[in-house]
Amino acid sequence: MSAQIISGNQISKKIRQELAAQIVELKAKHNLTPGLAVVLVGENPASQVYVNMKEKGCTEVGIYSEKHLLPKDATQSQLMDLIDKLNNDPKIHGILVQLPLPKQLDEKEVLNAISPAKDVDGFHPYNVGKLLVGEPTFVACTPFGVIKMLEYSGIEIKGKRAVVVGRSNIVGKPVALLLLQKDATVTVCHSRTKDLAAETRRAEILIAAIGKPKFITADMVSEGTVVIDVGVNRLDDGSLAGDVDFEAVKEKAAAISPVPGGVGPMTIAMLLSNTVQAAKDSQGI
Ligand code: GUN
User: Fold this and answer.
1) pLDDT tier for residue 78 given thresholds of 50, 70 and 90
2) d(C-alpha 134, C-alpha 68), whole Å
3) Which residues contact 228 (CB under 8 A, 6 or more apart)?
4) What's the confidence (pLDDT) of residue 278?
5) Which residue from 85, 122, 147, 195 has the least number of CB within 10 angstroms?
């Protein structure tokens, strides 16, 4: 039987509509327009696409947005000065520095410099720590989007065996923490896991965040599993593929998210949601 398709396009549209309505109210009742600053250093083509999509998302829901472009040879102090300025700008409630940064820049120092109250990416150690102790404030947008997809699709997390493949700071680790917080029994697998297929076959919820196209094959998935594919991989023919062999796995899974149109649009919706949250928090609303 073919799986239920978990459409990030549809779910994110609903979330964006809800946000747009909230923003109308914030403007009318509180004279508050949420503002996001996006910082892009250099000319990484994928980053340019992501940044443009984030700006478009802001415009659609009524968030004020600014794009700050720095040259690829920008210095650490140039970038730190910009962050300092944005930290102190009352129009700006959220700051996002698009990663990866060019090699000469110290990513850790940059992420640590963003005010935790404006850290809508959820990458500051303060916000990561809040997530670890089960009191999340800003949660990284992709993991947050994964959980919302499950929730909007009516998939219960509590008590389920969840297997996360990938242990990055941006996706694998935070999504594992969120699943744990929702009372799943969580296993995190990675490149040194001994028998990966044995682990993934035990999953009732499988999160693929590896970064290798079609890495999760049908033999690695049990009948009835819910599969969320976080991968975005560009193939030689220019098309996009996830980390899951979608066509084969959808015949076994109970539900599966596609690529494109799955986690990607959810990431943007959660960024918008975090920005609205930051704006409300700044006014104690
Ligand atoms: N690069 C890839 N994913 C992300 C993300 O979620 N946020 C930022 N800032 N950079 C990224």
Assistant:
1) very high
2) 33
3) 6, 146, 149, 150, 205, 206, 207, 208, 256, 257, 262, 263
4) 98
5) 195
Identical fold between 30-116 and 141-264: yes
Angle CA 171–174–180, to nearest 5: 130
Residue linked to tokens 């998935």: 221
Residue linked to tokens 């990055």:
168
**What does the pLDDT look like over 199-254, one tens digit per residue?**
999 999 999 999 999 999 999 999 999 999 999 999 999 999 999 999 999 999 99
Candidate from 50, 114, 268 with most ligand 1 atoms within 8 A of CB, to mutate: 50
Residue nearest (by alpha carbon) to ligand 1 atom 9? 98
71 within 8 A of 285, measured Cβ to Cβ: no
CATH of domain 141-264: 3.40.50.720
**Domain spans of the chain, in order of start:** 30-116, 141-264
Active site residues: 54, 98, 121
HSE-up of residue 274 (Cα within 13 Å, Cβ side): 31
- Length of the chain in terms of residues written: 285
Q: Above 90 in pLDDT, residue 92?
A: yes
pLDDT at position 267, please?
98
Q: Which CATH architecture has domain 30-116?
A: 3-Layer(aba) Sandwich (3.40)
Assess whether the C-beta atom of 119 lies below 6 angstroms from ligand 1. no
Name the burial class of residue 243, with classes exposed (0-12), middle (13-18) and buried (19+) by CB atoms within 10 angstroms of its CB.
Answer: buried
What is the pLDDT averaged over residues 49-64? 97
Contacts of 187 (CB under 8 A, 6+ apart): 161, 162, 163, 164, 199, 202, 203
